[in-house]
Amino acid sequence: MANVLYINTSVRNNGSLSRQLSGEFIAKWKAAQPADSIVERDLAAAPVPHLSEAMMGAFFTPAEQRSPQAAELVKVSDLLVDELLAADVVVIAAPMYNFSVSSTLKAWIDHVARVGRTFQYTANGPVGLATGKKVYIFTASGGVYSEGPAAAYDFLTTYLRTVLGFIGISDITFIRAEGAAMGEAAVADTVAKSRLAFADLVPA
To answer: Is the pTM of the predicted complex or chain greater than 0.85?
Structure first.
């Protein structure tokens, strides 16, 4: 039995390709692996707070030295870290906004990239602690960024590979839905290609 963490970040409930395709993937996963535990977190419906000076100070204060107020500030981050560390599989629906991730996904990352919890500093440099996980990331974009002249503007996949790798997660598969702003035919084509891309990714 596996623990699956499913994170949605699109601000759109209707017409979101990242929601649609990741939702189809999760439905297929549930059908194939009904005993698996799936934790769903919608960062658009229930966004996590962006970092503040007080919150950052609480992160770097040892637990036994935190004031009641500081301990309260850390609770959300601790919960998010616990969810991530408990997961064997992470599914992220991550549409591209202005060439990168949504602010809600960035806020989640700021909460889970925690020194002493998901990474640590050693004499040989930083070491990720959130190891042994498989990540599937469903991206959606109006243009095509996987190749061609716009590839240089893709800061979404490069950022996610880098930051997840920093905390110890390197087994990442991207399923892209591209060209959503190029007409109905382009949308139908990219949806079909995305479905084909994840058809065999769910373990039987």
So the answer is: yes
